[in-house]
Amino acid sequence: MRRSLVAGNWKLNGSLNSISELISGIRERQDQVKNAELAVCPPFIYLSHVQGLLQGSDISLGAQDCSDQESGAYTGEVAAEMIKEFGCTYNIIGHSERRHIYGDSNETVATKFAHVIKNGLIPILCVGETLQDREEGHTEVVIAKQINAVLDLFGVKAFAKAIIAYEPVWAIGTGKTATPEQAQEVHEEIRLIIGAQNKDIAANIRILYGGSMKPENAEHLLAQPDIDGGLIGGAALKAEDFIGIAIAAN
Ligand code: PGA
């Protein structure tokens, strides 16, 4: 049985004050969440602060990216090994904003994935097609390419401890959500790609949906057989909405 994960991707948002308020709001409402696991992914600079705020709770901590290097002369980078030191469980890799704004290629994402696994963190590997990909009928090919970039290098065993997040680029931050049927179709496809190599890993891997998920649309998305939770951007910045989504996973 796959336990739902509802993870907040805070992106480039927050301050010491607003983050303290957000975490206390989440903790106050947390007992309404029956089944889902909760995680928050703040900007790197706040990891230590949030680690402190989460003491005594079972909310997991994650980072939003990591370097494709281990250490050395790489100004501005943060290594997976450093992230691990701040009590992180998860590390988002290959988010479409990293791919499209900062140029992370499938190969870079695969290298980051390897660093994350090596340091005992759980990668949340994001995949997703653009609107153009979808309109041209290339959704499956694009998703398969993004997953195969990791599968080909590290094998299916690397997915035994990984999470995949399907995030259609056209749905991120746009208010347009994939319909539950559209999302389910791709989630099923992702499970088939993994299943072609290992059925057990495919049956156990959690596949999250991301892209304008809100309390109002979460229930139908999360009711789909292959959707195991959400990676939440905008709605994760309000405790009430974030918990509302997690309640929908109950
Ligand atoms: P959104 O972002 O919920 O604001 O669409 C999701 C994400 O980018 O992870």
Quickly describe the structure.
The chain has 250 residues and is α/β, with parallel strands linked by helices. The protein is built from eleven helices and eight strands. The protein has an eight-stranded parallel beta barrel, surrounded by six helices.
Walk me through what this model shows:
It is a single chain. Helix 1 (16-29) runs parallel beside helix 11 and helix 10 packs parallel to helix 11 (239-248). The protein is an alpha/beta fold. The mean pLDDT is 97. The protein has one domain (5-248): Alpha-Beta Barrel (TIM Barrel). The protein is globular. The protein has eleven helices and eight strands. The relative contact order is 0.16. It binds 2-phosphoglycolic acid. 2-phosphoglycolic acid (PGA) is lined by residues 9, 167, 172-173, 210-213, 231-235. The site of 2-phosphoglycolic acid has 13 residues, from strand 8.
SS content category: alpha/beta
CATH architectural label: Alpha-Beta Barrel
Bound molecule types: 2-phosphoglycolic acid
Largest sheet: 8 strands, parallel, barrel
Number of domains: 1
Query: For the largest beta sheet, what order do the strands appear in spatially?
Result: 1-2-3-4-5-6-7-8
Number of helices: 11
Shape: globular
Mean of the pLDDT scores?
Answer: 97
| Rg on CA atoms, Å | 17 Å
Terminal Cα span: 14 Å
Any key phrases for this structure?
8-stranded parallel beta barrel; binds 2-phosphoglycolic acid; 250 residues; TIM Barrel; 8 strands; globular; 11 helices; single chain; alpha/beta
